[in-house]
Design brief:
single chain, alpha/beta, 2 domains, seven-stranded parallel beta sheet, four-stranded mixed beta sheet, 11 helices, 34% helix, 20% strand, elongated
């Protein structure tokens, strides 16, 4: 799996990120907390756990709290499994640093704003060895506890990149040798055919309903669809991403 590169962002796009939390964030749930603890780029402030969770997860240094005490630290309804971590947010990676790291597969999300969907996309990206997810500085949620819980630890496994202009990011990926493919339900080309045999691929997905904006679609080499023989005409964006990522990983060849 491609390892995320957590360099401090450089360049205008990275400096203008508006989607990074101002201070420490609470993460919760076993997978999210353990992945954050294993990430040396994180600066941790406070680790809390119930006695049972600390024993189960091997966290002898955690501050012992009850379920209700942890509930009071977190947003209402947070399913924390008895463990939570207050930690500094990760610095987004600059696009030029991601390109320099040369992962075989990356994802570009055009104004996908639901944190649950975004978390699920991070999780699928980690599963299919995508090295980075590129988001817009606006119209994309910050990586906070809700998103991290949905990602099940993947926000610490897949590099996050924030850019001002998605179309320009696609152009930069094109220049760097990536085959850029946008997803759209009305395309004629199948996603499997679009990515087959490509050593480096960038998959672009748009928000549910709106899809890719014309400027973003126009910056892609190809527009492809996911073949759906059943009566349902569309998929949740996170489900579509998982299928596209699988097809990309299956059709990949090693970079020369």
């Amino acid at each position: 799996m491609n390892k995320p590169v957590r360099n401090r962002p450089r360049g205008k796009q990275a400096r203008q990120s508006q989607s990074r939390p101002d201070g420490p964030v609470w993460l919760w749930g076993s997978h999210a907390v353990l992945a954050a603890l294993a990430n040396p780029a994180r600066a941790h402030k406070r680790l809390v756990a119930t006695e049972n969770a600390a024993r189960r997860l091997g966290l002898p240094d955690a501050e012992g709290l009850t379920i209700r005490e942890i509930d009071r630290l977190l947003p209402p309804g947070a399913v924390h499994q008895g463990v939570a971590l207050l930690t500094a947010p990760l610095e987004p990676l600059a696009l030029d640093d991601l390109i320099a790291a040369a992962p075989a597969r990356v994802c570009i999300l055009d104004q996908v704003s639901d944190p649950h969907n975004l978390g699920a996309i991070f999780r699928s990206a980690a599963a299919f060895a995508f090295g980075g997810i590129i988001l817009q500085t606006r119209h994309s949620p910050p990586v906070t506890g809700t998103l991290a819980k949905s990602a099940a630890g993947a926000v610490d496994l897949v590099s996050e990149v924030r850019v001002v202009n998605i179309a320009r990011a696609l152009t930069a990926l094109d220049t760097a040798g990536y085959h850029t493919v946008g997803l759209a339900g009305d395309a004629e080309l199948d996603i499997g055919a679009a990515v087959a045999g490509r050593p480096r691929v960038a998959i672009a997905l748009g928000a549910e309903g709106a899809g890719l904006r014309p400027s973003v679609a126009g910056a892609c080499h190809q527009i492809a669809r996911i073949a759906m023989p059943g009566p349902v005409e569309s998929l949740n964006v996170s489900n579509a991403a998982a299928i596209a990522f699988h097809e990309t990983a299956r059709g990949a060849i090693s970079p020369q």
